[in-house]
Structure to design on (922 residues):
């Protein structure tokens, strides 16, 4: 006799093509959360998911409003009170994508090449969240039941750092109540080395605007006695870093908890060689290579400060001889250990204001924050995930730290007092947030089978 | 009996409203020379001028092709070989203007408020070039003749630094042959203090592009070991300046000819107070105020290096957590004395390449150049201009140095061996190259009358 997970896996294989086509429908909806012009697409995406969850005969399916974009919720609680409940979190929103950014195909028309689907959101996070929906469907359609209770919880503001998620969770603690939360929104180094993330960096994201003259000035008539706002911004941004590439904001490193020897040994297992790093990123040389930290430590366990965007004056074709009226930049820090995102913003703002000369005006605004997160790896929920990869994916996973920030992870752990297991089904080079984001259809399939096994493993904890 | 200039001035007053309406027709044509999308508008503008010059019954009227935008030419040689010939140079192209840059009205729909017309090109240079056309018309319609021979020479590439003008002049030296060139494309401090420019700064305009990874990267997955191209650009741009705001490019000041005491005394006559400077520009404080040069010296007789534009990564609404693939900037130097624009570009490029770290790639391209120019003030052509302002404008002019660059000035002087007299009919705060560029209709009228008198003064030299 077959295990219930076996028949569910057979079903998933037999329905693979339909599952892919359903995913492609999702990928065609440009559900950009950061751009007000796409509010209607966000709504369409939420309605598509609601309709889909209803069709699977989940219970309590609803689009739930927040102060921003809505949450889509649905549950199957048929396993009963003596079985664990797993909360599946995913996000249906995506970051912007324009053909002229370097996409080879329309970012919102999924295109399959060499077994990979190219589209914005393919791996982040539509492809990955859908894995759990399809795993649940496979149980319900074959066994009429799943091994554990499942709550599907999909938000539409992850890419703008989930500004309304904390109040939402607070308000709906009973509805969301669960024993473990699983999130698939991360990646592995290669298909044969799945990774379970047990740590994430936090984030402080800010915007700086420098203003000089009252309007763009003719650089010939006025150049020589006006502090060019673009130059003033350059000077300010330059002073955020020390000569050794560390961050110069006073107190920035105060709450970074030093890595232990044990932690460094585990991180070393997934370290990258310089060649691998250059291959994946395309950079000519590694930056900060002479520091005391390894590459993996630098990108996953150490704090950063990056310029995400910068603008001033004329960037169109041909010359334009102006002194720009203003200049701006978006900057963000990835945070680790006990660094508090609001405290880091305060330090950043204070420092920038202190180094801004009287020849220009500066404004520093906070855009979003996210707390760092860290979970132990020896708890049953983590070990069940490891077994699921072994049986469902066909490879032993490594436990790793992620350099990215999924704000909800620390918040769920804080508010719901449950562990969050990050079972990533993407590849490091899937190009999330980049042009030509892709997702392997083989990984989509193996992900569904792993998610099927995970529910069974959770039932047997 | 009236002087011929008196009847021409009466005619100009009687036809003032029609002259203004004709100017407004020109201002409605968005003849942007730097943007290929506006090539058709450039053509329309050239055709409008050709039609207009033909209607005035000038001779030899033609649109003359160049490798870029065409020249419009027309002449009246009825004064005969014993009278001087004046070459009037102007440009019919304009710099870009977008409503969202801060214009209060459509930049290509001239709007009159408080006696000023607001439109891109109102002062730079459509309003000013048209003064000479109308002065000639006034003579021809009242006297059937002008006091001197006049050649009208209008180009369409001044705002992109006239890349095709030198070959054009070389090829048409006979056609353009004249005794003096007059250009109205500059301004005065106040309506009661007209200014004749006898010096201009030159220009080297370059673009820098820094490239890092092969595409935009997720800042969480890769941040910490990638040299952010925006930061690399910031570092490069920061190193172009010394701590005292002087320019750090080796050899940059080598060919700057020191100002004599006599020159400094003349420049001091048109110096600005800190209050006037802050009022005109809107800056909170003057930059480089503690240097050894006065404000007027800094903006008109000293070289500069300005950032005209800068771009990288995400500048749209909301956060986007990327490490940008590249970053770029447009920078330009205003040059004085014996500084050679190509030599300055070579020094700049070499220096930038030398300070670029191996973690990124850099490309430095030359966009345009213009040589500096300086003429003596005691020659008859300059003195005739001074008399013309006294009689036609009603105020004694000052001789000043201009901080801007009109590439053709140095080229005409070099190739045609004639003086160039820059009789500006604009105001310093007309906002050329800025939003809400304007031109006073009173100055338009007084300009036409001054131009009428100037032709008579030239005849009497």
């Amino acid at each position: 006799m077959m295990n219930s997970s076996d028949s569910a896996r057979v079903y998933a294989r037999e329905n693979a093509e339909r599952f892919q086509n359903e995913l492609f429908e999702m990928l065609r909806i440009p559900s950009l959360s950061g751009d007000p012009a796409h509010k209607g697409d966000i709504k369409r995406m939420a309605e598509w998911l609601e309709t889909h969850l209803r069709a699977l005969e989940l219970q309590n399916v609803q689009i739930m409003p927040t102060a921003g974009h809505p949450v889509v919720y649905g549950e199957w609680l048929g396993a009963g009170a003596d079985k664990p409940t797993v909360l599946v979190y995913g996000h249906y929103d995506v970051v912007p994508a324009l053909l002229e950014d370097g996409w080879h195909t329309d970012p919102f028309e999924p295109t399959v090449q060499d077994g990979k689907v190219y589209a914005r959101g393919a791996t982040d996070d539509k492809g990955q969240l859908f894995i759990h929906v399809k795993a649940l469907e496979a149980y319900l359609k074959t066994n009429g039941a799943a091994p554990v209770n499942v709550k599907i919880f999909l938000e539409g503001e992850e890419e703008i750092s989930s500004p309304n998620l904390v109040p939402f969770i607070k308000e709906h603690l009973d509805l969301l109540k669960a024993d473990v939360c699983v999130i698939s929104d991360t990646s592995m180094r290669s298909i044969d080395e799945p990774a379970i993330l047990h740590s994430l960096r936090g984030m402080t994201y800010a915007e700086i605007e420098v203003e000089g003259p009252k309007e763009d000035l003719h650089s010939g008539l006025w150049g020589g006695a006006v502090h060019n706002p673009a130059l003033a911004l350059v000077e300010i941004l330059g002073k955020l870093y020390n000569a050794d590439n560390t961050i110069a904001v006073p107190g920035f490193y105060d709450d970074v908890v030093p890595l232990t020897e044990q932690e460094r040994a585990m991180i070393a297992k997934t370290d990258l060689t310089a060649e691998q790093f250059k291959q994946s990123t395309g950079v000519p040389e590694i930056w900060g290579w002479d520091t005391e930290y390894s590459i993996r430590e630098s990108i996953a366990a150490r704090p950063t400060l990056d310029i995400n965007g910068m603008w001033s004056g004329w960037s169109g074709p041909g010359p334009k001889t102006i002194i720009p009226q203003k200049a701006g930049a978006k900057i963000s820090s990835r945070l680790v250990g006990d660094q508090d995102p609001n405290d880091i913003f305060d330090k950043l703002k204070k420092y920038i204001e202190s180094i801004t000369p009287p020849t220009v005006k500066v404004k520093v605004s906070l855009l979003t924050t996210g707390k760092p997160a860290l979970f132990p790896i020896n708890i049953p929920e983590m070990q069940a995930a490891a077994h699921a990869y072994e049986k469902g994916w066909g490879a032993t996973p490594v436990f790793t730290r992620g350099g990215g920030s999924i704000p909800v992870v620390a918040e769920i752990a804080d508010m719901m007092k449950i562990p969050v297991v990050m079972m990533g089904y993407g590849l490091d080079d899937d190009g999330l947030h980049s042009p030509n984001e892709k997702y392997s259809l083989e990984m989509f399939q193996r992900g569904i089978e792993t998610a099927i096994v995970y529910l069974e493993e959770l039932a047997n904890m």
